Amino acid sequence: METKSININREYLYYLYKAEKSKWFFIEALANRTNNYKSVKILNSDNVLIWLEDLTIDDNTIQGYGSEDHQLMRVEIKDIVDWMIVDNNKLIGGYTIRYYRQTLNDDDRTNFDIEFGLKIDDGNDFFYPDFSTPEGVIIQLEMAYNAKSIEGILECKDLIMEAKNVLNYTNYEISDDLLSETADLLKTSIIENINHYGFPEFTDVERSFTLLDVKDSGKQKLISEKLIFSDGTSKTNRFWVGLNKNDEWKVLDLVE
């Protein structure tokens, strides 16, 4: 169905990145043998991207049949380009499909949706909640809010890096003392805000991430997170996220 040629740009590469970094979720679902349709996209020996279905997993390899030629193939998990799950007629994953769909005009997109026959919403990006990705640390921060853990919240932050970002918008000469003082103010602000408004809730939410900007040679990224709540409402936040000296991503300033 994906007949239009793909433009290899930063947006497309980010979709592939999301497929790679959420692959762990698919592997767990496949290993747990949940009863829904699952497929992976791979590059075959002819250098053509194809989908495999009727999958089985064995250690670090997946075996499946080509969706068009029904040829049996085996591929290492690390070589999976994309993955998809169909659950209650809803597409989960399928990042190359999502990218292709959003390149279409309105009429072609409507025809695509009719032919494809599945619900394609904003998606739910299953980044692993840790400090290894910008998106993962945002999820980790929200989990700390759910746990009502101020210590966990602060662990997800780099207040010195955030203070530097804040001071860059001023005319002050940035010194170590000023950085430390500003970081202390940011910490106080976080705690006072929680004391006044309470801990925000991030339970039963789906998350869709978008890369908006990059600076500092890729060590800071501006990430948009769309939160979709169980009642159908949504909210979008934008964060600068920074890579610290320990190669851990930390949440910095919220961009209004």
Describe the structure.
With 256 residues, the protein is α+β, with helices and mostly antiparallel strands. It contains eight helices and ten strands. It has helices at 10-21, 23-31, 95-102, 106-116, 134-146, 150-155, 159-167, 176-197, and strands spanning 37-43, 49-58, 61-66, 72-76, 82-87, 90-93, 205-215, 220-229, 234-243, 249-255. It has a six-stranded antiparallel sheet with strand order 4-3-2-1-5-6. Strands 7-8-9-10 form a four-stranded antiparallel sheet. Helix 1 (10-21) packs antiparallel against helix 3 (95-102) and helix 7 (159-167) crosses helix 8. The mean pLDDT is 94.
Form type: elongated
Chain-averaged pLDDT: 94
Following the backbone from N to C, one meets helices and strands in this order, namely HHEEEEEEHHHHHHEEEE
Helicity, as a percent range: 25-40%
Q: Give the oligomer, counting copies of the same chain as homo and different chains as hetero.
A: single chain
Number of strands: 10
Q: Please describe the biggest sheet, giving its number of strands, its sense, and whether it closes into a barrel.
A: 6 strands, antiparallel
N→C terminal distance = 39 Å
Counting DSSP H or I runs of 4 or more residues, the number of helices is 8
